[in-house]
Amino acid sequence: MMNILHISPYYPSLETNRAGGVCMGKEIESLEKNNNVYILTFAASAYDRKLAISESRRNCKYVVIHKWNRLLHVLFEPFMPSYFAARTSFRYAVKLIYCMKKYKIEAVHAEYASMGQYICLIKKLFPRVRVYLVEHDVTIQSYERKRDSSAAWECRKIKKHESRYCRAADMVLTFNEKDRNILKEVYQVNHLQVINLYFGFNDDFFPEYGKRNPQYASICFLGQMGREENHLAAKRLIKIGYKVKKQIPELNIYIVGNQPSEELKKEENEFIHITGFVEDVDEYLKMAQLAVFPLDLGAGIKAKVLRSLALGVPVITGKIGAEGIDEEGNVITLAETDEEYIEKILCLIRDEKKCQELSALSIEYIKEKFSWNKSEEILKQLYQEPHMK
Length: 389
Known about the structure:
Blueprint: E1 3-8, H1 19-31, E2 36-43, H2 46-55, E3 60-64, H3 67-76, H4 82-85, H5 90-102, E4 107-111, H6 117-125, E5 130-135, H7 139-144, H8 149-168, E6 171-174, H9 177-186, E7 192-194, H10 206-209, E8 218-222, H11 228-245, E9 252-256, H12 262-265, E10 272-276, H13 282-287, E11 290-293, H14 303-310, E12 315-317, H15 319-322, E13 333-334, H16 338-350, H17 352-369, H18 372-382, H19 385-388
Parallel strand pairs: 1-2, 1-4, 2-3, 4-5, 5-6, 6-7, 8-9, 8-11, 9-10, 11-12, 12-13
Helix pairs in contact: 11-16
C-alpha cells in the first residue's frame, strides 16, 4: 500500500451535490481500496466547513479561506491568473510540507489547475514523489469563450501558468479526449491519460432509475448558480421559457442550484421556480420531462448533463453542454440559437414517444461510455508501486 496525499481547492465529498466535490470524493474512495490516502484541502465556504465537521475524517486536514483572503491573494499576485491566485496560501504550503513529511507521502493526487501551483514546491522539496494532476476542465477554454478585454489579459497569464503546471506533473488526467488534445496541442503536454468523470451514480444504479414519471411540460436546469456560466444560462432559459409558454401554457421551469443571485430570484413567478440549494437534485430531474442547458460559457465535461442522461431525462443543449459527452447529437438534442431551443423544446414536449425513446437511449449510452469501473482501473494502475518507482 502506498501513502498518497490528495490536494484540492475545496472539500471533496460524496455527500455533496456539487459535481466536482462528488467526483473528487469518488476518486478518494477508489484510491483508498489499495492505498493509504491523506487529504489536504481548502474549506472555501461555510458549506465546506460543515462537510468537513460532519464527516470528521481523521486523515483530512483543511485550511479555512474566506472571500477576503482570496481577494488579498489576487491583489498580492498581479502576474498570476486571479483564478489561481485565489488558492495561493502560505498556510496551505506549510501544511502541505508537514503532511508530506509526517505521512511519508509517496505520491500526490492534485485536483484542478489551481492546485498545480503546489506541484513545483513538491518537486523542489520532494523530487522522488510523483504528482498526478486532474484537469477537471482546461481553464484557458473558459476565458477564451469570454469576449471582454479583461479576459484576454487573463488568457495570457493562464496560458503561462497552466502550461507550466501541466508540464511539471508526472501525469495529467482529463475527463475527455477533447481536453486531452487541447493540452497536447496548446501546451505540448505528452504525459496524458483520459478517465471518466464520476457524476454521482455507481455503475449498478441503472435498474433503480430506469423508470420515471415526468410531469408534462416540466423543464429542469441544474447548476451552482454562483458561477457566471450557470447564472447566464438560467437567465437565457427563462427568456426562452416565456416564448414557449405562449404555446404551452402548462409549462413549468425549475432552476435548481445553490447561491442564486437576487437578480435571478426576482424572476420567480407561477411557472419559473428558483429553488436555491436542495438536498436531492434528482427529485427535480425525475419529475422533469426535459433537462435544458443553454450554456454559452464554461469548459470541460458537464456532470449535470451526464447525470440527466443517466436518469433517462432527454437533454437539450448546445456544443458547450455536449462537449466531451455527445457532440454528434446521438442522444443529446442539439440547439444553439434561442429559436432552435424553442423549436426543440416544443417538439419534444409534444412528442411523448420521442421522449421515451431518448430516455432509453440516454441510459444505455451512459452505461456504455461513462462507466466508473474504467476510471477505477486506470487509477489502480497509476498508483501501483512498481509503476511509481
